[in-house]
Design goal:
Blueprint (H helix, E strand, L loop, with lengths): L4 H25 L4 H4 L3 E5 L2 E5 L7 H31 L12 H17 L16 E4 L2 E4 L17 H12 L4
Antiparallel strand pairs: 1-2, 3-4
Helix pairs in contact: 1-3, 3-4, 4-5
Length: about 180
Amino acid sequence: MNGQPHYQGLETAFKQLSFAIKLWHYFDTNRFDKEVFDVPLTVEDNTGRVCLPHNEFTTFDDLLLATENNISICFGAAAITLWEALSERNNYTSSALDPSHSPEQMLASLSYMIRCCYAHGTAAPKWTLNRKYRAIYKVGNKHIDLTNVHGLPFDYSVIGGWDTLWLLRAEAESRGML
């Protein structure tokens, strides 16, 4: 496992995504006083200090939007980490992938396409697919159609929801790819 930092960080990346979703759910179902959360805060360590102002978020809905954005950031980080782990463990390169070659390359290709949405558009992920990746992918019982999404904003519904990332990981694990 030495020399495979993404594989070693895969569990952490997926736990962080779970945390982001649970945090959003908590904020959405527990409408608490924003003033209790949005306080001035100074955090220091041996490298420096960061000072965060009071009342950074104007409304509770601003806090909720921040948790939704956090899901997107964590989803992107997990997707990037999943692709890098697959690449490390299987010596995949994007240029050599062919989604029609084998079920394993199809899974790796889908992972790479999701990764690309975030790696090339963190704040506003979008689909950027070379022709060879414009295909229908099968993950578990899901059929994910990427034939006509090039240039469109990333939307979880295209891949069948958040859970598809976990399903993609599980299927790669079951095939010995992770």
